[in-house]
Structure formats: structure tokens, C-alpha cells
Amino acid sequence: MNVLIAALSVAMIWGMTVHLHAAEMRLAVTTSFHNSGLAELLLPEIKKDIDLDVRMIVVGTGQALKLGRAGDVDAILVHSRAAEDAFVAQGFGQHRREIMYNDFVLIGPSSDPAKTRNVSSIGEAFTAIKQASSIFVSRGDDSGTHRKEQALWSSAEVTPDELDTGWYRSVGSGMGATLNTASGMGAYVMSDRASWLKFNNKGDLTLLYAGDPVLFNQYAYLPLDPKRHPHVDTTASAALERWLTSEKGQKMIGEYTIGGEHLFTPNARSR
């Protein structure tokens, strides 16, 4: 009897210990999302509301997709629509859920040597930078921002060979490091608005162009499909998705500001 009581006591203590530890999930997020500072606001509330520890792996969109394909995370939060659709179509993601958006902006030296301030489109701005051979710093890291930038050069009919010259500098870094490089060089750079607003080392850089509809920047949440990777924590990823798309989650995203400017607009829709 004493042995049975002891065994039950150990089992109860073990059960209580397990209960005291929150669930944990792995989420690959873009550097632009991390740089915005929004995660620092959301994660404590997620922990409090649903007892979930979200371990963020901060990488570019391309690397986040690779982690997802390898089954090294439970979900991804990225911003490259075509790549996201392919990820789901290929069976790696259960679905794609829009969470929030902002926009891309063109940053450059206040002197604006390429005269981009008064252009009528981002394509015209990129063409002006190329024609002036003004220094442009690219992330060059296969991130969502880099992919968007490459698409814009293509739309402006600037070929890859024309980018392989002295005025175009590819740094292979995240958004913060790329902005730092542009600041140090007095160069043009494309950034998501959130990262730019959060960035402290602006130096002589200023926002020169924004507003073209093509600069729309949607962020989406993609939970991994257990049919492809049975080990992924679908319970945790579903719980996080419910929180991010809840009234509270969307409200917190929409109310996040820096210097009075909103960094993201929530736009989650019911499934």
C-alpha cells in the first residue's frame, strides 16, 4: 500500500510539473517583423492568454520557407505571396492566413541625387537611381523584401547584368543591418515601413517615396501540414493563429505605433 501511495504521489507531482510548463512552439518570422518591435508587445500577452511560449527563429522569408519545408518549425510568418501560395500548394503548409499589412518605402539621402522625391511611380524612382548610378544597397538575402525589390527592378526593365555594377551593393543581411549600411554610405535602400520607423541610426537618410499600390506588403501565417511533417505541433500553431486573428490580437497589432505612426494594419479574415 505504501509503495502504491508513493507511486501515486510521484505521478501527481510529475503531472503538476508538466502542467506548470507552458506549451512551446517554433515560429520562423521575417527580420522585418522582428525589427518592428511588435513581437515584444505581443509575446507576453500570448503567454498570459493561452500559456504558449513562442520561440521565434528570425530569418528572411526564403530561409523561413526552407525551415518550413524541412519541418524545423511549426509555422511561419512571412511576406511573399507567390512563395507562400507555392508552399501551401506543394503540401508544406495547411493554409495561408492573412494577418496584417504595411507597405514598402524608398529611403535615401536627403540630397536625393537621383531626384526620386517627385516621381509618379516606384518604377520611375528605380529607373532614376539606375540612370544616375546612385548607390543602392540591397538586402540580397532572398527575403520577402529582397524578392520584392528584385521584382521592381525587373518591372523597371533593369536587368540583373545592369545591377552587377559598382552602384548596386548587395549585402546579404537582414533589414536592420542593410539600413545601417545604407546610412553609413548615404545610399538608397528599400525597406518595409515598420523597420524604417523603428530604425534609430537614420543619419542623413529620409523617406523619399511611398504610396505606389505595388508597394503593398502583406504578412501571412502558414501553419505546417502534419501530413508532410507529422511531428509538428499543430495544436500550438492553431492556438497561436486563433490568438493573432482574435479581436484582442488584431486590436494590439493595429494600435502599435512609433512616434505616432502605425506600423501595421490588421486584416485577418475568418476562415
Structure write-up:
With 271 residues, the protein is of the alpha/beta class. The chain has 2 domains: 2-101 and 217-266, 3-Layer(aba) Sandwich (D-Maltodextrin-Binding Protein, domain 2), CATH 3.40.190.10; 103-215, Periplasmic binding protein-like II (D-Maltodextrin-Binding Protein, domain 2). It is 44% helix and 23% strand. It has 12 helices and 12 strands. The chain has helices at 2-20, 31-35, 38-50, 61-70, 81-89, 122-132, 144-155, 160-163, 175-185, 193-198, 234-244, 247-255; strands spanning 23-30, 52-59, 75-78, 97-109, 136-138, 168-170, 188-192, 205-209, 216-223, 257-258, 261-262, 265-266. The strands form 2 sheets. Strands 1, 2, 3, 4, 5, 6, 7, 8, 9 and 12 form a 10-stranded mixed beta sheet that branches. It has a two-stranded antiparallel ribbon with strand order 10-11. A hairpin with a 2-residue loop joins strand 10 and strand 11 (261-262). The longest helix is centred in the N-terminal third of the chain and has 19 residues, at 2-20. It is globular and about 55 Å long.
